[in-house]
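Field: COMPLEX_INPUT
Field: COMPONENT_COUNT = three
Field: RESIDUE_TOTAL = 1200
Field: MODE = joint
Values follow.
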Amino acid sequence: MDAAPSHRTDNTQSGTPLLELSNITKEFPGCLANDQISFRIMPGEVHALLGENGAGKSTLVKIIYGVLKADEGRIAWLGKDVSIAGPSSARHMGIGMVFQHFSLFDSLTVLENIALAATDERDRTKLRDKVLEVSHSYGLPLDPDRHVHSLSVGERQRIEIVRCLLQNPKLLILDEPTSVLTPQEVERLFETLRQLAAEGCAILYISHKLEEVKALCETATILRGGKVVADCDPRVETARSMAEMMIGEKLQAPNRAGRDGESIHRLVVSHLSLQSEDQFGTDLDDVSFSVSSGEILGIAGIAGNGQTELMAVLTGESVVPDNMDAIVIDEQPIAHKGPKTRRSLGAAFVPEERNGHGAVPSMPLTENALLTAFRRMGLVRRGIIDGGKTRDFAEDIISQFDVRTSGSGSDAGSLSGGNLQKFVVGREIIQRPNVLVICQPTWGVDAGAASAIHQALLDLAANGAAVLVISQDLDEIFAICDRVAVISEGRLSDTRGIKSVTVDEIGLLMGGLHDLAGSDGTGQDAPALAEAGHD
Amino acid sequence: MDIFVQIVLTVITASTPLLFAASGELITEKSGVLNLGVEGMMLIGAITGFAVAISTGSATLAIFAAAIAGAAAAFIFGFLTLSLLANQVATGLALTIFGVGISALVGAAFVGVALEPLPKLAIPGISTLPVIGPIVFGQDIMVYGSFVLIAAIYWFLKHSHWGLVVRAVGESHDSAHALGYPVIAIRYMATIFGGAMCGLGGAYLSLAYTPMWAENMTAGRGWIALALVVFATWRPGRLLLGAYMFGGITILQLHAQGAGINVPSQFMSMLPYLATILVLVLISRDKVRIRLNAPNCIGQAFRPAH
Amino acid sequence: MIRLEPRKQHSEAMIYLTPVLALVLTMITGMIIFAFLGKDPLVALYTYFVLPLSTTYGLTELVVKATPLVMIGIGLAMGFRANVWNIGAEGQFTMGALAGGGLALAFHDSENALLLPTMIVFGALGGMAWAAIPAWLKTRFNANEILTSLMLTYVALLFLSYLVHGPWRDPAGYNFPESRIFPDAGTMPTLVEGSRMHFGAILALLAVVGGWLILAKALIGFQLRVVGVAPVAARYVGFKEKRLIWFVLLLGGGLAGVAGVSEVSGPIGQLIPTISPGYGFTAIIVAFLGRLHPVGVLFAGLVMALTYLGGETAQIEIGLPAAVAGIFQGIILFFLLACDVLNLYRIRIGWRVRHGGAA
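Field: COMPLEX_OUTPUT
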């Protein structure tokens, strides 16, 4: 085997590349995910792979890590052509990967999780020592005996990183590693990565966040629609110039219409506390907020901080039997009632997951239209379904919301993510709700569909509905919301006007520092800060 | 004292088939596969063991053949559910129906044929000791085998690397796949192992418990074994306890009749089934415990993305 | 190497083709089994599947056997749609027969025309009561209905055995474990003179129509289907899962109970230790072979009835063991489940060419 050059390489691209991809092509049924992609990574280089959701980044790294096979193209490792049969051979070559959705096992311990990936060391005692050593030297504190389900998202990511580092990788791939982290945790992660790069480990950093790429990476390959559109040095580019390369065409900013008429509280949540039904979930702790007609309230926060539980208790999937006043819709206390009562009061809901939650993939669009609308739209009479009316309603949604499909008889599962989301959102909006609660409105949706959905939400609010948007996407919240609150560990911050907060403040709130970023900071803040800094 | 020894001995023979079948199913389920065909695989094992014992006269061959037959039946199940992604519940039911049919067909020639029961491994001197002798040192090879099996399974799941892998595959097949473990192959092996053990459980019935063949002779033991796995919350130690508890109930029923307790025999025969329901209810009502212990992916088909 | 490629839209044609394909494959396997058993495969196949249908009497017997299968199959199909795995229909069948049959025995000298209708109602109630136990255990204690309903089957069969050996034994029956013969007023009228085809067949057809209405047209049928394929979506919309579990188990138990009472008041005419050759279990296959669709269940019931009838004919004519019927039933279900993969996936056969050189 060729020895990797031990000196740090600069961007002159001299020496043997660590990894070189030539004309990688991968096609899925109905989608060319990677189209003739070529680029190279030098040893010790921090290389960004930049692109929007759906640009083909994840497919490409899965090919590099051996999870997927390319249809065409060559991969060279240290100058030699290789065929990467699977993740384990990738690991043997020296490629480590930290997944976007962690590949961890909730019911196993940290050590067991690491043992599953580190196949060279079968002796658990020795492995344990190694884990402690690595976690110490890279500033990644971990308790090997804790069960994964009891750990925070940031701690889980540390397991993944430690697991990779144990194998002394030459190349570390990180797929959207910061999407689940607070800004402060991101900074800590970057320090670890810089330390690694300084020791000669190349890093392939996948992201769509421009500022992060500018802060961390020396080279960037930009993907759009499965193709390489540019190679650049992010340190000399502006965020704006990279954004233009990444997005291509300018998107229309959502159009905010002026609102008139008096505003009334339509959805009021007060002192809502609820133990999570899920053993691994987050309990809600004294959550209070209200949404008025004509406004959009955003709830920001990192995944797993109680959004799922909040959404469930708002839709009525879980109920609060002993405190019916905790949720009030149009002056009716309904916290103890199920979805039926809430919908009959004019509330509508769009959950985060489309497949199997908001829609049934194996059923046709007509039946998916029926799913939530049968009462409000009068599609069922005396227990019997009115087939014609249901079809008309489904076709209404399809035409009004520009859902691309071969017809109302197609299975929901045959639609692309963006089109199905438009259908689900459209189904709720056409019912003219007074209150709409929507979770992750544009998650995994293409840019065109996202802006259509944003516009629909703004229009709905302009027509007098109260809209609650629960989202992890801060850009989205700043684009469409009037006010914002942050959920962290099941607690909700005060609500602030969108004009009066900065991204930094939101970031601190997302990190759980409720009081510090709040408007009424007092002396009590100090211990909270000290505690957080100590971790 | 004699009656006590007698009861313990019969409890052991009644518990052993359950222990085999439930241990096998435990491993299968730990890998995330729910094979409801236990009853069918036990019947296939029972008739194979019996037929081979009669035609070759070798108990060893009979035991091996039963394990292979059970494994083969489990392979059919594996092919349908793991390779062709068929519904596991439906396929398990099909396997049971098939097992009942094919064992009856093959067994038709063996109805009424008598067989020498599996020999006890009498150790001279020790096995004649009072009480302990016959109980601890006078058992047949399969009883000892069942204890070795449960100990091995305990060690395998708790301490071995591949046991960890099996648990990981049952916990999250997507994560295991992402780490490069061959999910389907591991599930095949766990399923086939489970089938082999069910085959042994069935063989114990026809070779030792009642050394003869009768149609449907498992009489629901396969289903009881499935319930035992839930009762044990997927832990080998509790499985041993559960199997002996059920063996005890079966025997209680026989001895109660012998002791002249005046209850119609049919009601006594209902006991194991009613006890199964009771035990299931007691365990299942604690949803949290089930969720923490049950393999997370149980019953779900896995198809690697592309 | 076999690769499965998901279809974006499930294949409409395959839904109808796969049961036929499964039947053809079962026939071929059957011929191999016949050959192994030392019979001429073609003769055996003819004797098994054609000969029984060559006489009017044979056709009426087919209906006699299909009647309970269809009735139970309808109820099970609805349950399976909702992911409720009631596999204890045999027990519900038995309890229905006991409830209805017990009434006939209590009024064994009655000539009241209301006796039979009342027996049918009792049969339904008996089956429902037996199915209510797993429903209660599942909704209240989260206990798996597969195991509870099956355990209750054994209990029901033992209970039947106790009754016909003990309290309900015919006093004039020379100690045989059989009840009295039911009175005429408690016997199903036959539909064709000289045959055993009885009024239960009409009830089975009604069940088919009713089942179809519920699944295709009624809101509750839609709710059952949603709960089955997407329980999370059902909860999100507010469909009450527990209520649906109760509904579908009571419906299945009731239909099995009616099938049970039809059987004992029809072809059997009394209570005996074995009142069913496993109809409750075979109906599981009927439900699947019929694609969990009521009209499909009707055809599947006839097909599975033929496996029983053919088994009897082949036993008499060419000495095939009776157990062959059970094997056929298992194999049909295997093939059907295997062929089902074609609904959702395209099969691609061939070796993938690996790119690049050796690693």
